[in-house]
Specification:
Length: 424
């Protein structure tokens, strides 16, 4: 089928015109502090509430394009604001924002835990008395620690809040990939999107791409709040030993490239012998070593192929659940009238920006994906310049220390010669 570009543009334009934007915040000016109110509570679970500052961060695409950055160590965060109430009856609901764990560039993962969420709150919410343990309608955002990474998405249903649990058909290692391969292992800007459809399905997206393992039907991922469609007949039957559930496997025929093995360190090609280097006094000059950009580490197979022995997911024999009654409005979030930004940080340095709540996924992605891509590329470049400057400084320091050590050796050597001469 051939689809003309003009038709695609027309469809997208129509979508953008009919889209409903319930809320957006890009923190473009200092007045954000007047719109967002910090909780008056002094502490939560024995820890104080921290403050945000208005900044683009240390490494950014545009220093004038600012967001809010966590400021305090070992602190909780809780700010919120109200807006005109709405609900998502018979409509798609999209929650989206950008986030970067900038502190990871300086600290890495060691000892660092950070979580920052967007919460949808009822219209009765009072920002001054924001209580993290009070009722909320939805919570969405990343929770990052050295031991675990996840994107939380909790909902309110039948009088209480419920935590997300992974899809039942993904509860075994049926893939060769690591759990949550989508979660960023870097400190650059990423786009987080949560989509709820009026057919009781939902999507989590990361940088615009759907996360298959964390998307599906409400009944699959919040099973504890609703009776399942089917029950096990019995648990006595066991999976056959030769039953292979892996849909994909690593290609056993893949071999290591001939040029893979490279030294981890190489002489710095940009370094040169200082003009005042005295070979007699300082010794033979040697190039300082740097990390080899061609070093790839230990080789491991990466090519994935369909598993020829794949038999699908094995399960116990099932029967229809007589207590199951379908709820066509599990997706419905009623009386949305406020939004909160909440989290916990061991170290400050997380920047949040570009919050959008709408009923149009195309609009959200059209805004968020290009912005994230530009920001990510610029931040990588900015951090690269910082690293290069630090590398050159280390080279200078290395040369200075090496020269000082050689001078000390020469002094000791000359003193030994004089002492030997005096003895004679």
């Amino acid at each position: 089928m051939i689809i003309h570009l003009s038709a695609l543009v027309a469809c997208l334009s129509l979508s953008l015109v009919t889209a409903k934007i319930y809320f957006e915040e890009s923190f473009d000016d200092p007045s954000w502090e007047e719109r967002w109110i910090r909780t008056t509570r002094q502490e939560f679970r024995g820890k104080p509430f921290g403050y945000f500052n208005w900044t683009a961060g240390k490494y950014s695409a545009d220093p004038t394009d600012k967001g809010i950055r966590t400021m305090d160590k070992e602190s909780h965060y809780a700010i919120s604001r109200k807006f005109p109430r709405f609900n998502n009856k018979d409509k798609t609901l999209v929650i989206q924002f950008t986030l970067k764990y900038e502190i990871k560039l300086e600290l890495g993962d060691a000892g660092h835990c950070a979580a920052l969420f967007i919460k949808l709150l009822p219209s009765s919410h009072n920002p001054k008395y924001y209580d993290p343990e009070a009722k909320y309608l939805m919570k969405f955002g990343p929770d990052s620690c050295s031991s675990a990474h996840k994107i939380e998405s909790d909902i309110y249903y039948r009088g209480r809040n419920w935590a997300f649990s992974r899809r039942a058909d993904h509860d075994r290692a049926v893939f060769v990939y690591m759990p949550y391969p989508f979660f960023p292992d870097d400190a650059y800007t990423h786009l987080y999107t949560f989509v709820i459809h009026p057919n009781n399905t939902f999507e989590k997206r990361f940088d615009g791409k759907i996360i298959v393992e964390d998307s599906g039907h409400f009944e699959q991922c919040w099973q504890q709040i609703h009776p399942t469609r089917q029950l096990h007949v019995n648990y006595s039957d066991e999976r056959p030993e030769d039953w292979d559930e892996r849909e994909f496997i690593l290609d056993p025929t893949e071999t290591k490239p001939l040029d893979w093995d490279q030294p981890k360190e190489i002489p710095d090609p940009h370094a040169s012998q200082p003009d005042d280097w005295d070979t007699v006094a300082d010794g033979q000059w040697e190039h300082p070593l740097i990390i080899n950009p061609d070093y790839k580490g230990e080789w491991q197979p990466t090519r994935v192929i369909p598993n020829p022995d794949h038999k699908g997911r094995w399960s116990h024999k099932m029967m229809d659940n007589p207590k199951y009654v379908e709820d066509p409005e599990m997706y419905l979030v009623k009386d949305i009238g406020a939004i909160g930004i909440e989290g916990w940080h061991e170290q400050p340095g997380t920047v949040l920006d570009n919050i959008l709540i709408t009923d149009d996924l195309e609009l959200a992605l059209a805004r968020g994906v290009p912005w994230q891509a530009r920001a990510h590329a610029a931040e990588v470049e900015a951090w690269g310049k910082v690293c290069e400057a630090e590398r050159l400084e280390r080279v200078k320091e290395f040369e200075r220390m090496k020269k000082d050590r050689q001078k000390m050796k020469n002094i000791i050597k000359n003193q030994a010669k004089r002492h030997h001469h005096d003895e004679l």
